[in-house]
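Recap from last week: sequence in, structure out.
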Amino acid sequence: MKAHTCYHCKQWIEEGEAHDCWTTTEEALTRDLPEDLREAWDRLRESLGDFGEQRIYASHNSIMFSRTACYAFVRPRPKRLEVYFFLGRTERSPLVQKSGASSTVKIAHRVHVTHRDQVEAPLTDWLREAYDVSESLSHRRTSAPAAKPASRAKAKAAAKRKAAAKPQPKARARTTKRAAKERPASPTRRRTKLRAKAR
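Predicted structure tokens:
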């Protein structure tokens, strides 16, 4: 591969140089956390792990919690843990830093955790809900029929039908010189001609 800047870590990679910043481990992402955040992480991981069968793995700069699809992930930061989870609704709470649609059926939520005492209700309740609805949300997303874009031929045919349906303006009848001569003159024109002859 040619020399380039890594899209993820922004590091300059020389031509032919091996580079893999995406593959990481849970230990590598949490190794340098301060004590308070480390305790918060340990409690958070234990709480999520107790929900049931799932896959926990590290990817790039996050630790993912997944069933059929990811239902939550944690992004360790120097001063906080950014906890993301996905619900089928919007949770309006002062604890939620940000929320928004991540797909047609999932709403992503972000909560900041700075101490282990924050890993309790309502955060753990939201995470449990995310775990419980993960399967049904994934099924709804895959079973929804995708809308097929109309082909060009169909679009053209529709445009022609629309144009044909519009009322056409009436064409003005052309008056030929012969028809003008044959047309009887109006009384006003007759008087004008008589006055011209009298002069």
